């Protein structure tokens, strides 16, 4: 049910809601209008339940909190502050901006992965064609003669024959591994392994850290802007990330702040937060404008992330094409090398 509700649906809902509330329309009237405008029937049913709760006297934050997948803790915390200050419209507007920026960071990451995956799929299709059609054709030709095959040619033919003879077993093994990964993907141990591996991979680690910093700072900015305490903001912002290594780092920061240490001093000793991050935080602490500084940090790391993404993408694309080209070239050369001996064999 909830899976059919997209990020676009949630952004449009909040965008329209903020406009309605800014126009001094009551919460119940705003929800009634939104129910008429929402196209997704599942989302529409949820908002009807929210409206029903609100008309019965429940707070908006309490009603939304029943659906944490749609309205996460960061949203509920902001709505609560909006209810206390009587400024829900601004809170919803700020959250909409947060959602759009956050979605842009995620979309850029997915966009960068799209082309390399496409190249890999096409290359796999080409290599599959060679293994199951091209190489066997040459193999039949070579086996009908007594021509001595070069080592590379024989190796590729043997490899092709092995794949062909054990194809069912290879598919079963691949299927079993895929099934194990799929079943383990939600386990904390598996996520820790993947997160640790990604953070140790050259180039990729820098990209992930920039993305984590930008999204974390964005969360902190909107929370502190709503006058949520630093500790509470850190706890909520921690849960906006799916990276378990990052969550542990934030947990360490929280424990040290409880002991009386400053935020900037904590981040300066972290393996994920760099010196620029810590220095900007220090400036924010001195001026008592952490919310604005976190906003600037988010913009800074967002731009750094985009730049790093462009650099890595520009490197990966030619490298992938080169590697695939070399593999295809080796196979073709290996198949055509014995042709010179075949010419002599047939006396051409």
Please characterize this protein's 3D structure.
By secondary structure, the protein is mainly alpha-helical. It folds into two domains: 2-71, no CATH class; 100-128 and 184-348, Type II secretion system (T2SS), domain F (Receptor-associated Protein, Up-down Bundle), CATH 1.20.81.30. It has helices at 7-22, 27-37, 41-55, 60-64, 73-85, 88-143, 151-165, 167-184, 188-199, 204-225, 230-238, 244-258, 263-268, 275-287, 290-336, 339-345. Helix 6 (88-143) runs parallel beside helix 15. It is elongated. The mean pLDDT is 84.
What is the strand and helix layout of this fold?
Layout: H1 7-22, H2 27-37, H3 41-55, H4 60-64, H5 73-85, H6 88-143, H7 151-165, H8 167-184, H9 188-199, H10 204-225, H11 230-238, H12 244-258, H13 263-268, H14 275-287, H15 290-336, H16 339-345
Helix pairs in contact: 1-2, 1-6, 2-3, 5-6, 6-7, 6-10, 6-15, 7-15, 10-11, 10-15, 11-12, 14-15
